[in-house]
Design a protein that fits this description.
There is one protein chain. With about 425 residues, the protein is an alpha/beta fold. About 35% of the residues lie in helices and about 15% in strands. The protein has helices spanning about 10-20, 55-60, 70-80, 90-105, 120-135, 155-160, 170, 190-205, 230-240, 295-300, 315-330, 335-350, 380-390, 410-425; strands at about 35-40, 45, 50-55, 110-115, 145, 180, 210-215, 215-220, 225, 245-250, 270-275, 285-290, 360-365, 370-375, 390, 400. The protein has a seven-stranded mixed sheet, with helices on both faces. Strand 2 (about 45) and strand 3 (about 50-55) form a beta hairpin. The termini are far apart. About 50% of the residues are buried. The protein binds pyridoxal-5'-phosphate (PLP).
Length: about 425
Amino acid sequence: MPDLPALPVSELLALDRRHVWHPYGPMPGRVDPLVVESASGVRLRTSSGDLVDGMSSWWSAVHGYNHPVLNEAAREQLGRMSHVMFGGLTHEPAVRLAKLLVDMSPDGLEHVFLADSGSVSVEVAVKMCLQYWRSLGRGGKQRLLTWRGGYHGDTWQPMSVCDPEGGMHELWSGVLPRQVFVDAPPADYEEAYAEQLRAAIERHADELAAVIVEPVVQGAGGMRFHSPAYLRVLREACDAHDVLLVFDEIATGFGRTGALFAAEHAAVTPDVMCVGKALTGGYLTMAATLCTPRVAEGISRGEVPVLAHGPTFMGNPLAASVACASIGLLLGQDWLAEVKRIEAGLREGLAPARELPGVRDVRVLGAIGVVQLDHEVDMRAATEAAVREGVWLRPFRDLVYTMPPYVTGDEDVARIARAVCAAAKEG
Ligand SMILES: *Cc1c(COP(=O)(O)O)cnc(C)c1O
């Protein structure tokens, strides 16, 4: 078969605008995306030149691009099989991955459901919780409680627990399941807020299947950080009132906050935990829902003693192989030292942003840096300012933020910080 002719950039963009949906985009598109030709290390080769990636492709590419070890894992697995169905069949990559996840996650999580995206892993988590109570004859426990400012994905159940102020919610009010919301968690521990959490869980206990939150860092819902002590409050209140606790670690997992999983900051084990994003080092789409024996046994004692979920690409061997290699890379190095190094670089490099007009807050935790403005960011001006500094950023709402790959060198961390400042100034 002859190769397709390479499209000139202008033609590619014209076709893109006309035919291709982009995340949260209109159709036809209104702004031209950058065209990426290839990526290596922390650099994207784009139609606007080489850019240092400040986004890790939305939290996922923690080891950078085109990594020889991950490439080799994919190549090796391709030579065996890229996919087989998971019903009635199993394979070493999936089994090894499940064992790795059980070993590295908080004690008590022992069973792994492999899903094909973060949103699906949250759907599975919700299904597990509802089915658990149904199996125990308490089918009235069907609602979820969460705090505002969260993000859990774009499919139906996840959307219902995303921040209700996000805009999309209003569009779907009356259609989405109605969940219980409490205020967003304050950054520091406040007893009055802890009391509010306890009271809400107690008040709604009869109808609550689970509390679901992002531990320590709320990502796409607003890039807010909160005291890990609230996770202990949730654990205790959930235990006291027969409610399950779900941690969505899809953004925070695999070291990003300075702990392997953010739950460790509070030494709390949830009943169900979702991971995704960095699971495959940003190579392939895969996520997982882990649960405790209590949840699994509860479901398996019910009138329908199975978890009725089974995506076509469940346990995909190619993704599972790369995930095993990515976890091996992470644990085979002093990942905490790298995250702390980036944290120090971001603290220093973002400090000048505090003096900029229009900046409301600057915060850094682990390998995450956030500049919050007092106005909606001008996406185009902010993105262009970052590109002029040689950096790829994707600001949203009132936020200019970065979560660089862990392999980002000190000079590139400084460059990213300069770009965040420039984007905050211009945006
Ligand atoms: C990105 C994200 C999701 C959704 O994952 P997808 O793979 O995009 O479906 C869910 N929860 C959190 C916390 C996320 O950051």
